[in-house]
Design brief:
single chain; about 55% helix; elongated
């Protein structure tokens, strides 16, 4: 008598099969490109401010204002581009895309939650980002929570 072969259960990406996130170097390079654009925006803002007022605040106040502007510009940049465009210049340059664990591009509502959760990852002294060094798939905390990750764009 032969044993009846059992049908293999359907394998689900991200659950049964390991995810294929982009290498850390590519993700860092994409972030660096985006950060450079934000720094250029803050510098442009500072130059315009100086041209209009012809005054410079004290060094300590300038440093605090610069840090605040960088944080606000970075948050706005990420929110507007990731939520409404689904990508950023850094992600495009590094040929990365934002996918859900099932391999489908993330919808706007998921992208919104991802950005909001990434702010929480940063606000916790960066612990949400350091999470990737302990994670088996090298995903950050906000990626695990929203079930999204950055992968190489197969269309480019």
């Amino acid at each position: 008598m032969e044993e009846v072969a059992k049908a293999e259960p359907e394998r689900r990406p991200g659950i049964d099969m390991p995810l294929q996130p982009a290498p850390l170097e590519q993700r860092v390079a994409a972030m660096a490109i985006d950060a450079l654009l934000v720094v250029l925006a803050v510098v442009t803002f500072a130059v315009i401010y100086y041209q209009m007022t012809h005054s410079r605040p004290p060094i300590a106040q300038s440093a605090a204002l610069t840090a605040g502007l960088l944080a606000v510009f970075w948050a706005g940049y990420q929110y507007l581009l990731i939520v409404y465009c689904g990508t950023s210049p850094g992600l495009r340059a590094m040929k990365l895309q934002l996918l859900r664990f099932d391999g489908v591009p993330a919808k706007r509502s998921v992208r919104r939650w991802r950005v909001l959760c990434s702010w929480l990852s940063a606000a916790s002294l960066g612990m949400g980002y350091l999470w990737q060094f302990l994670d088996e798939d090298t995903l950050c905390w906000h990626e695990r929570v929203t079930k999204t990750y950055l992968a190489r764009n197969s269309n480019q």
